[in-house]
Design goal:
about 70 residues; alpha+beta; two-stranded antiparallel ribbon; about 55% helix; globular
């Protein structure tokens, strides 16, 4: 299984937000450390992290890439 550290995850989300602000649409893929993550996968990751934060009251240390 592939994982992102919290730092890598935050950098990925920042780049997705920057792309959305510049182009008006979400990117088809996110690139993190030579890994290509599809929109479906990164959307799922964001949803899981948000749920984790709401339930646990903290950020996860790593995030699994599906």
């Amino acid at each position: 299984m592939n994982y992102l550290t919290l730092k890598e995850y935050r950098e990925m989300v920042d780049s997705i937000i920057d792309f959305k602000n510049e182009n008006g649409v979400m990117p088809e893929y996110a690139h993190v450390n030579n890994r290509r993550i599809s929109r479906k996968s990164y959307s799922d990751m964001i949803e899981r992290v948000n749920k984790f934060i709401l339930e646990m009251g903290r950020s996860p240390k790593t995030v699994e890439i599906n």
